[in-house]
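hi! just following up on the protien thing from before. the input was this:
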Amino acid sequence: MVGLDVDDVLLDLMPRWLQEYNEKWDDNLHVKDINDWEFWKFVKPECGKRIYNFLKPEMYQNVKPLEGAADFVQAIRDRGHTPRYVTACGDPKRTTLHKAFATAKWDALIRHGIAEEGELLLPGRDKSHAPVHMLIDDRIQNVNDFRNGLGVLFTQPWNRSSYLTRPRSYEDVLELIDRYARHIPE
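and the predicted 3d structure came back as:
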């Protein structure tokens, strides 16, 4: 099973998030300007960590997929692997909001032809023991902490300072999957 992070690996969340922020705070921040996971460091100081308040389930109605995401996931299926969508959905103790994020992300994955009915979305903050054999994620910590197999850091501007090798495209990720396949018990 191949675990796929949803935000900014399959769905292009950051542009939508920054659009909300830029409109509210009269700023012109772009995805390429963010070179660290601590996104709040790049917004206006008076906004600061309130940038995270812009993340709402409703955003996913207007989030587009990354180019090639549906074909990438289909290529994983075509190789005989089962995709699992491993994603953070807010604080699990806030059940209603947690479920709303999970539903919004799943609906977006289905709407954009990425996920198929019968596949699973695995919501949770801690991905270290996700029940998959390979985890593809854009957060350095998630890749470093993953314990069930191979963690792959998906290239995004906020992880370019990592010492980890990052595939530059979905095709590069598929090559890694092919090389690792003999170790993945499907």
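Strands lie at 2-4, 83-87, 120-123, 134-137, 150-153.
The longest strand covers residues 83-87.
cheers
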